[in-house]
Structures are given as C-alpha cells and as structure tokens.
Automatic annotation (TrEMBL):
This is DUF190 domain-containing protein. Pfam families: DUF190 (PF02641). SUPFAM superfamilies: GlnB-like (SSF54913). InterPro entries: N-reg_PII-like_a/b (IPR011322), N-reg_PII/ATP_PRibTrfase_C (IPR015867), UPF0166 (IPR003793). Signal peptide: none annotated. Belongs to the UPF0166 family.
C-alpha cells in the first residue's frame, strides 16, 4: 500500500468505556478503518485527561478510573480519511474529532504489504 507524503491525521478523542455494537468504541473504529484498507491506526491510552464536561479522568493509584482517555489516530491520504468520516458518524457519541495535515517521512513494513511513499 502506498501513502502520499502529504497526508492527513485523523484523531478521535473518546473515553475508554465508550461502546459501539457491544464492543469498545476504539476497537470498532480501528476495525472499520482496517476494513476500508486505510494506511494505519493506533490506539493510545491516556493516564489523565478531561473533556467537555471537565470531569477529570485519571489513573492515579488512589483514584482509579475505569474511563481513561483514549485517542485513536489514523493516517492516510486526505481523500481517504474524508471518505471514512461518514462511517464514523453512526458510531460516535460524545467525543472530539480533529484533522491535521501531516508529512509522512517513512511508511514501510516487513510483509508483502510493505509500501513506499508516493
């Protein structure tokens, strides 16, 4: 798979306890991105954060949270990311979604799907 050097980063900020169709929302998003053959997705689990409600979510030992912040990052060509956005609409509840331009300097792998920039 090829990915252009000028690409787009989609970031979705949500909570660890958010669900879609009986599974964690972050998992549903990554699987949907994979089904659409997007270049890649990563789920990051935060140790502390807050959102629109200003409710603090933290992993401190004395105050364990079961709803830590989660960020899903997906990188691909802008058109492919924008085509993916409507698929997210039916999944997302309260969250923050951002897009930003990124410069891909390396995208390769070791398997048969390894690609080059361009």
């Amino acid at each position: 798979m090829n990915i252009p050097a000028e690409s787009t980063l989609l970031r979705i900020f949500l909570g660890e306890s958010d669900q879609h169709a009986g599974r964690p929302l972050y998992e549903a998003i990554v699987l949907a991105a994979r089904e659409r053959h997007l270049a890649g997705a990563t789920v990051l689990r935060g140790t502390m954060g807050f959102g629109r409600s200003s409710r603090l979510h933290t992993a401190k030992i004395l105050r364990l949270s079961d709803d830590l912040p989660i960020v899903v990052e997906i990188v691909d060509a802008e058109a492919r990311i924008r085509d993916f956005l409507p698929a997210l609409e039916g999944m997302l509840g309260g969250c923050l979604v951002t897009l930003e331009k990124v410069q891909v300097v390396r995208y390769d792998g070791t398997g048969p799907d390894a690609g080059e920039l361009g």
